[in-house]
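wait is this the right file?? whatever heres the structure
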């Protein structure tokens, strides 16, 4: 089922971009309504199931259009273009970005009380143009049973919506420029594997043979059937359920030091088994191995009596250092290409677009610098100091590059970096005393795109260019489509959130307390340098480099540095056992059936992913648009 190339140049029409832009508001409304009713969070792992759901039905509809009017049907590149646009828009509208930001903009002034003293502590450091302050407007937003479509509500929200939408669009644009700079090296020269895109690639580019494959439908029936039964069990408990629970091992370890193991679920999700099948064996092995390794560190800390260090073994700090190490490795492997890019800056951009680049390297670098300058200017205007804002965004983009490279090469199903973002990395190491109140206040606002990196959009941008390369899509058109998707996705995410919140109330309001309650603690009890946290970051960084060195020097070395980084994430708790099961299956297939059996098995595991995504997507639609509790296959 290797996708082939058409002998003729496939079409990539402007109409496909317009269709993608029209679908973005509906897609974002689905995500926001789903969050309101707790019916699912598709952006919490690498492959967004809501976008695969949309691509699946677009492909089916396209079959009918091809029969009636072939000239109106979408080509494979156009289907993939829409897929990438929806992926970027979903990342912006997802749980780890806009669904947090909207609660900050409308919640920080609403949740201030005499008891928490937020008003006295930091309100004077919040510019009026960043948030909504009008009590009447905020009451309808938080309590529901109102409508957003009142002149007073719209005018109070208009300024923050436009400002934050502009900020997000610039942030996405900077990442897109970074993607253009590394695109040729990571896609054409190194030919990285991009495991995450295999399902949408086959679904759009080789759809006829894909839908005729019996192994795919077998996997679809197994995963989809499980979700159908579990969904009916949720509605009618008399129907027996089938798996899907998080069985926790920690109750079996009640005595010290073993009780330090903490929450250790052993879930099995078909889609997770399917996603892990496309990971290289050394990475899937490393993921579950290092997950148990982290548990071993906790137990060892209990044995050594590290109770005076509540953050031991500083997993978040080690993970941050590991992702920095991945970025350094990525830059090192791309160094010769970056030298050519640097030389091209002084040649007038002759390296592109004739070489297939969407824009010249000179334009990409200038766009990167201009966008970065806008982000710094925004931060300064909002109250941050110059040096702190520079370090913060440098760290953020370093982490983004590390995540993107890891996704491109290895296809990790998760990369969340909970409590390990750029702002917490800075505060937890050098302490709050070294930052101004304005710095700390903006750190709290920037929590919306640093709380977790599960739905990070930069990997989707790079994967979009890989899909373009495989389908011979016009990369220049894709570039501007992604810029438009970021802008439209930001504005329509606000609209979707406000529409649902004014009718039903605000979900996830606890994120406001999480971020600004932490700010309250920072200001009331300032902290000094945490040398242990700094050492943990250095240890994570050096250990990642050591693993990479061993991997390059010893062909039999089984541990991958990316596994060390991924296994420190919170979300790996939900995936590690599924990854282990997939690793066992793939190992047996390769050992006893070789590459031939492996190739024949690929459609089955794609079917596992697709079956759970399609049936699970229907359950989410039921909860989101009917406004009722529903079965969620994710957790």
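ok assuming it is, sequence goes like this
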């Amino acid at each position: 089922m290797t996708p082939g190339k058409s002998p003729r140049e496939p079409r990539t029409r402007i109409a496909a971009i317009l269709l993608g832009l029209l679908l973005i508001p509906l897609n974002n409304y689905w995500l926001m309504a789903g969050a309101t009713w707790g019916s699912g969070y598709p952006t919490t792992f690498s492959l967004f199931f809501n976008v695969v759901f949309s691509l699946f039905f677009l492909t089916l509809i396209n079959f009918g259009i091809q029969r009636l009017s072939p000239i109106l049907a979408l080509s494979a590149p156009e289907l993939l273009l829409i897929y990438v646009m929806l992926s970027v828009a979903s990342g912006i509208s997802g749980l780890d970005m806009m669904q947090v930001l909207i609660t900050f903009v409308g919640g920080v002034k609403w949740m201030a009380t005499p008891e928490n003293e937020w008003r006295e502590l930091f309100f004077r450091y919040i510019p009026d143009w960043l948030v909504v302050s009008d009590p009447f407007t905020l009451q309808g937003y938080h309590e529901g049973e109102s409508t957003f479509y009142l002149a007073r509500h719209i005018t109070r929200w208009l300024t923050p919506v436009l400002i934050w939408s502009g900020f997000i669009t610039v942030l996405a644009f900077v990442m897109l420029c970074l993607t253009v700079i590394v695109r040729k090296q990571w896609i054409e020269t190194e030919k990285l594997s991009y495991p995450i895109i295999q399902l949408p690639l086959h679904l759009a580019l080789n759809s006829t043979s894909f839908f005729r494959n019996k192994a795919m439908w077998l996997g679809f029936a197994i995963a989809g059937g499980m979700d159908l039964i579990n969904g009916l069990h949720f509605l009618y408990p008399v129907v027996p359920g089938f798996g899907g629970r998080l069985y926790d091992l920690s109750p079996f370890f009640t005595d010290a030091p073993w009780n330090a193991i903490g929450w250790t679920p052993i879930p099995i999700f078909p889609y997770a088994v399917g996603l892990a099948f496309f990971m290289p064996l050394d990475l899937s092995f490393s993921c579950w191995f290092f997950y148990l390794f982290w548990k071993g560190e906790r137990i060892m800390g209990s044995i050594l009596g590290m109770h005076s260090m509540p953050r031991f073994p500083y997993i978040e700090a080690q993970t941050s250092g590991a992702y920095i190490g991945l970025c350094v490795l990525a830059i090192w492997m791309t160094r010769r290409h970056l030298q050519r890019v640097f030389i091209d800056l002084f040649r007038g951009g002759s390296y592109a677009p004739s070489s297939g680049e969407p824009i010249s390297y000179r334009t990409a670098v200038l766009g990167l610098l201009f966008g970065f300058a806008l982000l710094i200017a925004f931060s300064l205007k909002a109250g941050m100091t110059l040096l702190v804002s520079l370090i913060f965004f440098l760290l953020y983009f370093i982490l983004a590059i590390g995540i993107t490279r890891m996704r491109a090469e290895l296809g990790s199903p998760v990369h969340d970096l909970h409590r390990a973002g750029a702002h917490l990395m800075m505060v937890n190491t050098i302490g709050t005393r070294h930052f101004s109140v304005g710095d700390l206040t903006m750190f709290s606002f920037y929590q919306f795109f640093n709380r977790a990196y599960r739905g990070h959009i930069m990997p989707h941008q790079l994967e979009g260019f890989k899909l373009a390369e495989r389908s011979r899509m016009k990369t220049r058109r894709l570039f501007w489509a992604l810029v438009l998707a970021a802008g439209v996705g930001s504005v329509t995410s606000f609209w979707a959130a406000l529409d649902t919140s004014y009718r039903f109330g605000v979900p996830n309001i606890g994120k406001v307390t999480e971020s600004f309650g932490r700010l309250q603690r920072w200001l009331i009890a300032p902290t000094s340098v945490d040398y242990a946290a700094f050492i943990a970051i250095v240890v994570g960084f050096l250990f990642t480099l050591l693993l990479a060195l061993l991997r390059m020097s010893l062909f039999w070395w089984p541990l991958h540095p990316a596994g060390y980084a991924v296994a420190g994430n919170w979300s790996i708790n939900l995936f590690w056992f599924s990854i282990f099961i997939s690793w066992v299956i793939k190992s047996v297939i390769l050992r006893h059936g070789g590459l031939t059996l492996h190739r024949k098995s690929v459609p089955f595991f794609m079917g596992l992913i697709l079956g759970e995504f399609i049936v699970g997507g229907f359950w989410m639609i039921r909860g989101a648009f009917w406004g009722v509790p529903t079965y969620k296959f994710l957790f």
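Residues 14-626 form one domain. so i think its the right one actually
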